[in-house]
Amino acid sequence: MIRSLVIALLVSGGWASAAQAEAPLEQLALLSEHPIEGMPGSNLSGLAWCGDALWGVSDREDDRLYRFDARESVWQAEAEHFIAPPAPAMPLPWGLRMRTWAAGLVRGGMLDFEGLSCDSLGNRYLVSESRAAVLMVPPAADARWLDLPPAMVRQARASGMLLHFNQLFEGIAVDPAGARLWLAAERKRRGLLVLHRQQQTWRCTGGCVLQHEGGSEAAPEPLAGPPQPRDYSGLAFHNEKLFTLERQAHRICRRALADGSVERCWSFAEAALSDARRYPVSYGVAEALWVDAEGAWIGLDTASMSRADGEQRPIVWRFAAPKGGWGATR
User: Fold this and answer.
1) Which InterPro entries match (predicted)?
2) Could you tell me the residue range of the domain that residue 228 belongs to?
3) How far is CA 320 from CA 23, 277, 291, 323, in A?
4) pLDDT tens digit string along 118-148?
5) Domain tally for the chain?
6) Quick check: is 273 in a domain?
């Protein structure tokens, strides 16, 4: 009888866990929407709050960052130029490098900057998808590439990441001290990597790969089409947690620093997929993420596509923090 009772409890607990896992995610509340003027091509690929302003980067321009003038509802992008020195050689295969080089010639953006982060000193960190490298742009000095270990790329590829064209690094996060750095591999397989600064170099401590996974998942109901590969399109660090922007699923997830495991997720699908905000594609266009105590900034790479209401410009959304804050358990 006791055995039967234990089995019954385990089974009921399993059903409860499954029901909890399948429960609808809390929807984040959209506070404001800001079209951006002054970004040619509408290719907003990264966001970071540096000093007193929000900054952005385009994956089609190799020589500038944008500071957003947010005094009006429509923001103005003000360019800050820099010169990137030759990128370091990382152990990517010749075929992958040649495809990336050819794509850069056609569409622009040979370095393909896909993420942006900032430390407490105002240093900006840009991850180059095409070079699997990170450029640091200080506020008052020349830009320079970080000394990242080639083992980072080798370990990522051995784990099934960074194997496919245009599916390499898609997000970056740096802690305020500029001592820890995380990178997000986009998809097929997606994953998280971590490095620690030692003097002027960066090293893997106990291995670079923090988390990786494959598989597919269905998009939110308003989007048609078959399930798509799980992806990361943005990464942020806040209050000793990582936050991943999961474009196809239209959600933000909080993850543990120790192993990248998911702790809780929140959806922004309700706002993003409203009739007026729909784009003529079956995938998400959210590419950039910054998280703070009051909420989250999400940037859209619209590539000059028109959404249902006719808007073509890149967009930044401001969402309120969830009930109980980003650290809430349930």
Assistant:
1) Phytase-like_dom (IPR027372)
2) 30-320
3) 21, 19, 10, 9
4) 999 999 999 999 999 999 999 999 999 999 9
5) 1
6) yes
